[in-house]
Write a structure and sequence with these properties.
There is one protein chain. The protein is α+β, with helices and mostly antiparallel strands and 164 residues long. It has helices spanning 16-26, 59-63, 90-94, 120-123, 135-163; strands at 2-6, 36-41, 46-51, 69-71, 78-80, 101-103, 108-110, 130-134. The protein has a single domain, classed as Alpha-Beta Plaits (2-Layer Sandwich), CATH 3.30.70. It contains 5 helices and 8 strands; from the N terminus they run βαββαββαββαβα. The strands form 4 sheets. Strands 1-8 form a two-stranded antiparallel sheet. A two-stranded antiparallel ribbon has the order 2-3. Strand 2 (36-41) and strand 3 (46-51) form a beta hairpin. The termini are far apart.
Length: 164
């Protein structure tokens, strides 16, 4: 299964991912319609594009009273059928990551559907911060990044100890 993976060190905060997502899903460039959201932290100089991680055991699907949330057998995406969604927002409460949004105009919940296996947000990411990769590759990348950061911290701590 593939997921949208992001590298915050590469994100430039252009929000192209939001615009591309919004356009493909609503034919408009209204970022509120996007199923990916970029959180900007100016003091830390960090931008984080965040979207659904398509959990292997999705709480949103478990709590949906109308059965509107299903797993796509082809893409592995957890999707919401707007025709079956009753707008109760239980999925929003159940998502531990906060990646389900409520469309007040249509009175339904919305989330990333991986664009049928070809995520538009990834196509239009100018910096390469977003990638559509196998989930194991994403896990390995995260482990590698963690180890690199830990090593850097330990080296810095060791250097500070020698300087005293």
């Amino acid at each position: 299964m593939k997921i949208v993976s992001m590298d915050p060190e590469k994100c430039v905060g252009c929000r192209n991912c939001e615009y591309a997502c919004s356009f493909i899903h609503s034919d408009d460039f209204d970022r509120k319609e996007a199923r990916i959201r970029v959180s900007v932290f100016p003091n830390e100089r960090v931008c984080l594009p965040l979207t659904c991680v398509h959990c292997s055991e999705p709480f949103c699907m478990e709590v949906c009273p109308s059965g509107a949330i299903e797993k796509d057998d082809v893409t592995g995406a957890i999707t919401i059928d707007p025709n079956r969604c009753v707008g109760c927002k239980m999925c929003i409460l159940a998502c531990p990551f906060g990646h389900i949004y409520f469309n007040a105009r249509e009175q339904v919940s919305q989330k990333c559907d991986l664009c049928s296996g070809e995520p538009n947000c990834v196509k239009f990411c100018i910096s390469g911060a977003l990638q559509f990769i196998e989930i194991e590759e994403a896990y390995q990348s995260n482990r590698d990044q963690f180890v690199t950061k830990l090593k850097t911290m330990l080296e810095k701590k060791s250097f500070e100890g020698e300087a005293k």
